[in-house]
């Protein structure tokens, strides 16, 4: 059994490799992911039935959300974006064209009223650094999504929100080393389509 220190070290090494793989993705794959996410926003039952969906404003190397945000908004859904303040993350409404605030690491974040109950969200689209075939995820290492959805680890039944990662196939690995606080995904969307994970079907 590896010690917790070696798990977090293994995650750090893997994070570095996966960030490199993400930066190497070409424009064709980026466009394929834009198309795939738009199609799924229109057709997949979890998104079709959703009224409130949270996503994120993508950084240049991340899985792009521009088309997805436009599509969801155009379909009349209430769309939300994450806002990080200190160690906490919460969600505020997405308003196209609204002024954003510069944040660390080149991220921008919206202002706005905070959504108080996370169960009001039907779907959350998460940015990923990597994911594995069991639905484990890796982010930038801030633990923001893990802390936000940590109560999910203690409940056997959690219908909402569905947690869907958005990533390129190049970000997939067979198995990620996981720590007890890591909150798994219900599905991942890549340029090849959507893959639901077993416990969520
Ligand atoms: N586009 C996008 N938006 C996003 C995320 C994301 O991954 N992508 N997030 C996904 O989480 C949240 C913001 N995540 C952040 C993650 C790290 C740091 C940061 O400043 N990290 C420090 C070290 C952190 C520490 O050690 O505590 C740094 O790298 O200098 C800031 C925001 C919400 N919005
Ligand atoms: N529920 C929690 N309570 C307290 N600390 C937590 C919790 N979840 C994660 N953390 C802390 O956050 C840090 C991030 O760990 P991890 O490598 O899992 O990040 P990540 O999954 O890549 O990040 P993110 O969730 O932002 O995408 C760790 O140092 C961990 O101790």
TrEMBL record:
ATP binds at residues 11-15, 137-145. Its cofactor is Mg(2+). Substrate binds at residues 57, 62. It holds the Pfam family 5-FTHF_cyc-lig. GO terms for molecular function: 5-formyltetrahydrofolate cyclo-ligase activity; ATP binding; metal ion binding. Signal peptide: none annotated. Keywords: ATP-binding, Ligase, Magnesium, Metal-binding, Nucleotide-binding. Belongs to the 5-formyltetrahydrofolate cyclo-ligase family. This is 5-formyltetrahydrofolate cyclo-ligase.
